[in-house]
Inverse folding.
């Protein structure tokens, strides 16, 4: 499949997070620039094409962002498409095994909440939303 056709296929999966206000990072350089200042709170979603990303993770994130407390910045990379950007993003949390989808909340440069695929795929979107809202209440001003 050529790159143009792949981009067309994956566009709806990418746009779902973009419509929630996420900045999509497609290159290692974009990741470096976006992660250069981690003051405040930053939510990072490692997006993917799997069913638990589309049926649980992305909807849960969208619902959680309706909450009154939310992160200062929203960033995303797409694991199966932008591999170099994803690898660079994962370097910011090397203590966590690679997982897609996965969700990380940073506060002042430190990971304060991490949600691995195994904590997403066995639950529903509402349960994941509740965990995110709890983290937002605890860490976001």
């Amino acid at each position: 499949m050529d790159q143009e056709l792949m981009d067309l296929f994956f566009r709806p999966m990418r746009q779902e997070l973009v419509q929630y206000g996420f900045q999509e990072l497609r290159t290692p350089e974009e990741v470096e620039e976006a992660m250069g200042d981690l003051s405040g709170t930053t939510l990072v979603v490692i997006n993917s094409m799997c069913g638990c990303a589309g049926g649980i993770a992305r909807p849960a994130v969208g619902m959680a962002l309706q909450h009154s407390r939310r992160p200062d910045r929203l960033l995303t990379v797409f694991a199966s498409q932008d591999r170099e950007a994803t690898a660079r993003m994962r370097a910011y949390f090397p203590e966590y095994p690679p997982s897609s989808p996965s969700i990380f909340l940073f506060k002042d440069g430190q990971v304060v909440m991490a949600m691995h695929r195994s904590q997403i795929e066995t639950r529903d979107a509402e349960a994941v939303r509740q965990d995110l809202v709890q983290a937002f209440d605890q860490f976001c001003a």
The chain has a mean pLDDT of 92.
